[in-house]
């Protein structure tokens, strides 16, 4: 079974819009958008997306805290999470994997290939 629905979590509306348009256009995926970690938790439980694309740096609940809360909720514990970030330090990737993320996509990203990148990270062809 492939990816059909993606929850995109980013505090920047322009980034959410570009990701949503590219995922819908290039992959035909349904995109649900959240502007915060708190909103993402509510939507992930209600929408049951196939994958969550999660910004690392957000005000309030950041990506790490959001991922921890997703893993703590039985309804969302097994949803694959991919981080999207402009800043990656060498130890970040290991920390994110320890927290349960499948990987990360660097910002800025290529709108024409982001769907393929997400699919590869979560093991879907």
Explain the layout of strands and helices.
Layout: E1 5-9, H1 13-27, E2 30-34, H2 37-47, E3 51-55, H3 63-72, E4 81-85, H4 90-99, E5 103-106, H5 114-122
Parallel strand pairs: 1-2, 1-3, 3-4, 4-5
Number of H- or I-type helical stretches: 5
Provide the CATH superfamily.
Response regulator
Kindly name the structural category. Answer: alpha/beta
Share of helical residues: 40-55%
Stretches where pLDDT is under 50 for at least 5 consecutive residues are none
Q: Which outline best applies? A: globular
Counting structural domains, the number is: 1
The end-to-end span amounts to 9 Å
Q: Give a quick account of the main beta sheet: strands, pairing sense, barrel closure.
A: 5 strands, parallel
Rg for CA atoms:
13 Å
The number of E-state strands comes to: 5
Query: What is the average of the pLDDT values?
Result: 94
Strand residue percentage? 15-25%
CATH architecture grouping? 3-Layer(aba) Sandwich
Briefly, what CATH class? Alpha Beta
The CATH topology is given as: Rossmann fold
In the sheet with the most strands, the strands line up as: 2-1-3-4-5
What is the ordering of alpha helices and beta strands? EHEHEHEHEH
Short account of what is shown:
This protein has 125 residues and is an alpha/beta fold. 44% of the residues lie in helices and 19% in strands. Strands 2-1-3-4-5 form a 5-stranded parallel sheet, with helices on both faces.
């Amino acid at each position: 079974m492939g990816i059909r629905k993606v929850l995109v979590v980013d505090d920047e509306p322009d980034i959410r819009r570009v990701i949503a348009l590219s995922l819908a256009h290039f992959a035909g995926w349904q995109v649900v958008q959240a502007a915060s970690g708190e909103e993402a938790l509510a939507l992930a439980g209600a929408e049951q997306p196939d994958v969550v694309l999660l910004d690392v740096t957000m005000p309030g609940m950041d990506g790490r805290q959001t991922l921890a809360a997703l893993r703590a909720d039985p309804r969302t514990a097994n949803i694959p999470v991919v981080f999207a970030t402009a800043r990656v330090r060498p130890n970040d990737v290991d920390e994110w994997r320890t927290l349960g993320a499948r990987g990360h996509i660097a910002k800025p990203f290529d709108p024409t290939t982001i769907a393929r990148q997400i699919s590869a990270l979560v093991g879907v062809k």
